[in-house]
Queue: 2 jobs
Job 1
Amino acid sequence: MDVILLQLLNGLDKGGAYALIALGLTLIFGTLGVVNFAHGALFMLGAFCAVTFNKFLSLEIVTTDPTKTTAWGSPLEIRTPYIEVYFGDFGAWVLNYSVPVSILFAIPVMLLVGFIMERGLIKHFYNRAHADQILVTFGLAIVIQEVIKSMFGANPIPQSAPELVRGAADVGAVFGYDPGIIVYPYWRMVYLGFAAAVIGAVFAFLQFTTFGMVVRAGMADRDTVGLLGINIQRRFTVVFAIAAVVAGVAGVMYTPILPPDYHMGMDFLVLSFVVVVVGGMGSLPGAVAAGFLLGILQSFASMNEVKAVLPGIDQIIIYLVAVVILLVRPRGLMGRKGVMEN
Amino acid sequence: MSLIRKPLNRRSILRAGAMGGAALATPTIFTSRAWSAGYLNEPTGSEVVFGFNVPQTGAYADEGADELRAYQLAVKHINGEGDGGMLNTFTSKALGGNGINGKKVAYVTGDTQTKSDAARASAKRMIEKDGAIMITGGSSSGVAIAVQSLCQEAGVIFMAGLTHSNDTTGKDRRANGFRHFFNTEMTGAALAPVLKNAFGTARRAYHLTADYTWGWSQEGSIKKYTEDIGWDTVAAVRTPLGAGDFSQYITPVLNSGADVLVLNHYGKDMVNSLTQAVQFGLRDKTVNGKQFEIVVPLFSRLMAQGAGENIKGIFGSTNWNWSLQDEGSKAFVKSFGQEYGFPPSQAAHTTYCQALLYADACQRAGTFQPCAVKDALEDFDFDGLGNGPTLYRGADHQCFKDVLVVKGKEAPQSQFDLLEVVEVTPRSQVEYKPDMADVQGDLGTCNNGA
């Protein structure tokens, strides 16, 4: 039972990341009809917003100690972060909380990136075949990847969670287990709560604002909304930028779990795309439900007891589910009738 | 009067077509410029070309970049530029700082992308098009084994870069291939006694293993040596290469009864699995009345930088570390540091050594002919390259030297000062017979490509 509970928790935080990326993917597909294979790169860009912000905060005053030399004979450098020199304890506090604080930096950056991507490239492919859209966005993802690699290198760059949430919680104690049987990192719980909050905010935005109502109307019948004199295209541009922000902040908060590197977006993209297909192309609740469902299934499939019966099942489980869904219900779990069915 | 002396007819066109077709169908490897001579790519001008095949893109691009820096430095030193680096401390004095056998060294580079097919393609290009006399580099055992096999078939020498699997000089050994880097067998032999002293004999280990040739090799060696000191292996779980999130593999460790987690991961996988294992509080746990421990058998400074603070206090092994204080290491660190502004990694060290060792062997053999160079390298005893007295064993083309057992440093003095050498395991303790069960193989015969 304890193992099942642990894998359920694992699946939830993994599912949270899948759901956040898939939410943006399906939002873009539902509004613009574009299959955006660069969406994983937006997740990665968000993560590197956190890295950049941290590097900025960590800019150092470099002085040399003439009495000491390095192993290759140059004077030993002494480095102190500017922020600690100028702001003392407050500077150290900001540095400690650099990951959550960098969300404030990531939001405008990702809005801008989303806006430039949509206006500069994606809009030219609205009326082109999905194959063209996939090719161009996949190409764009590779370009973004290579730019990041040339700037930050190929190795992962670790980002620390704030000290307050660095350890692990004894979750088992709540359920009456002995101490240390079910422990779970605090930051993963924070991530799960964060994912739920962002998903809730996106749904609330679409459900309870006039802007959201127009977008939903546009998703249902773009032509009629246009006939009412509403510039739906402009709203869809904003939707693209919002989807970029959702992916970006998901990436920011994921950095303490997975040290970011230039390829992390690609690792998540394929899985998230499967999530969208399983949930139903264009279905927001479908993307969220499928994200959590596949995250949990993937975790359970990794259990030694399961792998002893079905070796290698952890590698194929989500693709297996996708195949079954596509065979049995081509529009996905909550997809609109007609989408992906012909 | 006709200008055509022999009028075209059906027969002459067919004959010409057949000859042209045969010429085009001949693999370029048989028509390259060196084939008129005694061996493949025999240098005829004033230069000899080395082929540096390193990962310039992909997950190991940073290691590849460091390897390339070391190769460029080695070429400088062989050609008599710079301060000479480890040529000054190398016990063989055959090289005089004026190239090799009167020829200056030039080089071409290729990108392995850490993929076997891409690595073979770039090595083939360097041999066929660029006339490389020797191929060297790589940062993965899968790649090393694939390229070594290609070099054997083509008839050039392969000087392996960072490859740690037993198979490179074990079951996949080749007469044309040589490895300076240590292997998992040596890691097991060096690490186990240190682990015994640090953690005792009654331990229960849980292995997470990268699911490819190197991971299997390391898991096998570590299991063998830790079980010899009395440890039990609770489970050995294979994880997909590049899994990213290892949480679903780490959580079963919590209640497995294991009190040691052995991470048979390298590179990004090691950074991720170690970071996540620490996040799950494994290092704070007490199991079976003992403090839970994590072991990372193969360490690299570049990877340690990725793991950040999580590396502190964790045991592992390494081929070389820049903090060593022997004359060879000091000379190399000084030379590399002055050139690039930071100390070299173990990948840089092994590739620099391989370039120097190959150059020295050619000079001693008086030729670049692969089989003569092979003879010069086999059973060659040397010192002064940072690892103490070293033997390039003829039976399997594996270098035998001291192995470093290291620990993540608790109080680093700089961003490079991450590993603390806790023991230099003497060569005699890590030597094994070339026909031992886990490492036996057949070198085959040397190929000159002629």
Job 2
Amino acid sequence: MKPLSSLLDRELIQETLAEAISNGGEWAEVFVEDRQNASADFDEGRVEAMVSSRDLGAGIRVTVGEVTGFAHTSDLTRGGLSEAAQAAAAVAKGGGQVKPVALNGDGVAESNARILPETISKTRKVELLEQTNSAARAENPAITQVNVRYSEGRRRVLIANSEGLFNADDQTRTLLSVNCVATGDQGLQTGRETVGYTVGFELFEDHDIEAMARRAAGRAITKLAARPAPSGQLPVVIERGGGGVLFHEACGHGLEADLVNKGASVFRDRLGELVAAPSVTLVDDGTMGVEWGTIAIDDEGCPTQRNVLIEDGVLTDYMWDHLRSRAAGRPASGNGRRQSYQHLPMVRMTNTFVTNGDAEPRDIIADTKNGVYVAQLGGGQVNTATGDFVFGMTEAYLIENGEITAPLREGNLIGNGPEVLQNIEVIGNDFAMGSPGTCGKDGQGVPVGDGQPTLRVGALTIGGTAS
Amino acid sequence: MSLAQRNEQVEVCLSRSRSTTVKAYSAQVESVRSGMSEGVGIRVIVNGQQGFATAGSLDYEVLAQVIEEARGNLQFAESDPDQGLAEPDGIKSPNLDLVDSAVLKMSDQEKSSIAIELEQRCLSADRRVSSVRSAAWSDGWGEFALASTNGISVYTEGGSCSVGVQPLAVEGNETQIGYAGDAARRPDLLDMDRVIAEAVEGATGMLGASKPVSERVTVVFEPGVTSAFLGTVAGALTGDRVVKGRSPFADRLGEQVGASKLTLFDDPTNIESLGADNHDGEGLAARKNMIIENGMLSQFLHNSYTARRLGASSTGSAVRGARSTPSVGLHALCLKPGTLDREALFHKVGNGIFVRGVNGLHSGVNPVSGDFSVGAYGHKIRDGVLAEPFREATIASTLQRMLLDIAVIGGDFEFLPNGSGMSSIAIDDIALSGM
């Protein structure tokens, strides 16, 4: 396949930037994206659909002071780009003092994938689906439905701005997920597992998908015997890798500089303060191996980095994009991301996690007299202004007298970010990343990772029905 | 259709849309975003094997590539005798006019003024409003065309505009955020006064909220929350879920699944709903479908595939964009309203909670098992009137129980920006978890 820079010629980009800024803009950017996705769904024992898609387009951004103009187009001809540049430039009101700097760099990137999924036959992909389905069904006859989804995505981006930045990236992600339904006397239960990384088809050399299928089936089977979750406040132990979403919701969003600047975060004006238990160190790291939220550069062309947000309980920094960091007169942190060329970038997380403590996980459980053990959390949501967040428990058990006992039906947990951070009683030494996630903010979804060692929160409200 | 080969069923969907969003901050324009999107999606079916491919362009060259890609995909799908395109069923489209030229004629200047007005009026409405996180105007226009080798050929065009605002209210160390929005086909139908009042009240009214005591209570949902709840229920009544054994209501057709006062239907032929449409996602005419009548489950919603699977007829309930295959869904879900206004409803309930918003619907509701547990905030209802606010609580039950436990349906019916037509409802015996 052609490198992206040859899909859009360097001179054309330079001209587009010049046109975008010519109406009095102070800064302009061209973001080009070529996205190819393919997926296959296996349901009811057969391949249901194979779908492939291709999207190519550009978003042009112009800023003047605090004002941003943005226009996107799928027409990458000179005419289409010119029209979009003029539409974006319309926020500026004449003049035209700034001249764009000559582009600096080659705008070429190598793929992160060792084996590009597009080079693998569809037959091989169908085999994977069948193999996963068979393994899940073989686990237990009570498994009545299995849905397996394979998806691959390649996203090539090219970012140029009027300060001469000219960066490219070639990002491939591959994922397999399985969703099982078990039927029992008291109705249906579900179990889900996903394996997904920022890699190519080598994913399947490095991961045992049959074991993953058995885990998903096991979750659904276990829940057939589940009793209603308690209602009220209890200590909660979260299994390693199962609850990084808690930190994503409880404080991650509140540390995004765009929300902080608008006063919509409980963490505003708190830099340097103790905001969490002293054992808590929270990091957002876009460079982290092949994790789901890993990217070489963000969607503004800024290289990603490891950002320590909370260190030993003290708030050390927020996350930044171009717009917010420029206003604050500081460097960006590689957190400017967007869903596609049709969207404006904003501050987003990448891989967000709590680092290891020193407790033995088994001691954490044994030291919990009565509480809830959460093996897997589902998605969550936060009100950044108050810090109140919820997240779903997709696999949870009671802890009685220091032992994990009965499985619990699904429910939400609710807590308050700043309070929960202070209330982390003990952190294990068994760090693991969790399942791949999609983070939604203002209607845009981006891939993110999260992780944490086994840990205990002193009290969270469990939204069950049992008294 | 000239690209179709012998023995092939081919369906081509094309779409094009334009949108503009203007956001205001600090009395000036913060951002203006506009753009045009195009899309094509092609389904090819041969001997019950389906392939699909899509691309974000309407170039003829791209179309030819997409159809080849769809043909390539179909070889890997297993044959399913029920797979196939929709057959024309003779039902006439309601022929609604879904575009109003007033929006198309607006300048960016006018749109900016509205966004700035939203922000400024929130700031001056109450001294406790400290800032506005987002104040936005949006408008969109789209067209959709579908043609198939089964002789279906339809075209629809639609447009709408909307406003939304999120004020922040501060008192002491506490901050609360409110939200309200409105959407309509014509700008003059947007109720700015109401949006501003609701958004500001949503933030200031929650100041001082505390965590409630855990107990079993009667819960009153405001119409937006009713929509989220009944939308989840209706999702479990679609053919997709039923044929795959993923609905707790799969074997309940003809049975009493809800309180006898509950009547629920999908009506895309009602122009008052923003979900109104002339056709479904397979080009069949939009039509009104009863779902639950007086508490009895009257039918499941179907597209042509799920209908064939269950020996039924399509209810014209295929939903899709050009870029995806048709699934089954709702266009304009409506609840038959009761008679009590909100004050009378609170009076009738006596003691309980009024839920103004829920969160965690995507994580806390399992539409397969029916388990329902979501974060909730709002006000206590005491002695028949609204009392102090509460937050950081959850409410839980199961979808199955909640339908049967509906105690009152309010008369405060309204069409919401999501196209549904809803009222407040009271549901008994919900577990409220807090302290």
